[in-house]
Amino acid sequence: MTGADTSSSTASLQRDHLVALQQAYGDVLAQLGLDGVLLYSGHPRPHFADDQEASFAAFGHFMHWTGQADLARSWLLIRPGERPRLKVHAPDDFWHLPARLPDEAWMEAFEVEMGRDDAPPTLPAGRFAVLGDVSVALAESLGATCNPTDLLGALDERRVRKSDYEIQCLRGANQQAMAGHRAARRTFLAGGAELDVQLAYLGASRQRETALPYASIVGVNAHGGVLHYQHYDAVPPARQRSLLLDAGHRYRGYCADITRTWAGPDADPAFAPLIQGLRALQIRLVEALAPGVDYVGLHQRLHQGLGQLLADQGLVHCSPEAAVAQGITRAFCPHGLGHSLGLQVHDVAGRVDGAGRPLPPPETDPALRLTRELEAGMVVTMEPGLYVIPMLLAPLREGTASRDIDWPLVNRLADHGGIRIEDNVAINSTGHDNLTPPE
């Protein structure tokens, strides 16, 4: 976003968000017979036998109130009818810059203490729970219950539907992320290596690597077929066939999760039409998003569409229905259509209903992370994929489905890795709002 993060409209939306959150917590605590809840932001973990710490992001329910992803060792006490008490760990230190809070209007809603120690605040008499990365022993020393599942489940459910403020934050995260994707594409087409693409992405999206909501997936050529490819080659390949970039941004705590795939100058002529076909399928699936839609059913539509795309592009010589029935489409796309998105990239409560009852994914699709019926206020990713993954295709070479697959064409595409197209979409009362800006 531009200066919108300090605008009066954003401040007003955030105040409304906090008022609604105070009411929601009050209702949940009353239902469970609790007088309050203490939220711990968490702390980074040191590497073994070292004084360096791993990257850190605060506990989601702590961020739901504060939006501060990097506040470590801090505490937030919520009690119905009282101002939230925020204790920020800010010791005197010449090795590190102490934590600071932004000078923004939302701070007026909190009672803030800048503490030199990371000890939790003393709790008043009553029934309290402590949530976060804390021990049972610490909770008991405070006279509180540690991470009760009924409270965690109820608060997770409150995060499923986003406020107008949260939608605005997610939109801002998408705008910053897309600026990075545009720069990354230019770098790739100019002959850059995976590391060059990542550095271009970070520069244009204006973030450091440790602030990313997840490690960027920068897959050139066959690396695009490793779903969570985790390296960055420093030397470009001899031939630039393809780039798959899955990279996001965190804005006021909220995450963007965008994927794009581009054909390189050395791509096989069959690759670009596959990208165009998958993009067209993704657009059709996005257009189907609305309240009341069964996400599992939408995932099944993904495989029907993939079967049609494989047939249209000559990768299979059977009907789309046969491609699905024989498991061909799942070999080409082993992951789910998408997931819930918010303060976490794979946000909470995706596989339970509104009452917390489990909604397991179908046996044929164990990787599907979202199995609920869609509701207004949800934000989901839509990310169909099509990959050439040798270990998944190998069983098909030996089975009855082998005769229905054009193996010479598959082999030509093997060093292109794969294709994934991912947008972030908010469900509203009349349908949907795609938060991901155009390329």
From TrEMBL:
Its cofactor is Mn(2+). Binds 2 manganese ions per subunit. Residues 15-155 form the Xaa-Pro dipeptidase N-terminal domain. Residues 169-428 form the Peptidase M24 domain. It catalyses: Xaa-L-Pro dipeptide + H2O = an L-alpha-amino acid + L-proline. GO terms for cellular component: cytosol. Keywords: Dipeptidase, Hydrolase, Manganese, Metal-binding, Metalloprotease, Protease. It is an enzyme of class 3 (hydrolase). Mn(2+) 1 binds at residues 257, 339, 383, 422. Its EC number is 3.4.13.9. One of its GO terms (biological process) is proteolysis. The keyword Metal-binding applies. Mn(2+) 2 binds at residues 246, 257, 422. It comes from the Bacteria. One of its GO terms (molecular function) is aminopeptidase activity. Pfam families: PepQ_N, Peptidase_M24. Splits dipeptides with a prolyl residue in the C-terminal position. PANTHER family: XAA-PRO AMINOPEPTIDASE 3, XAA-PRO DIPEPTIDASE. Belongs to the peptidase M24B family. Bacterial-type prolidase subfamily. This is Xaa-Pro dipeptidase. It comes from Halomonas lysinitropha. The gene is pepQ_2.
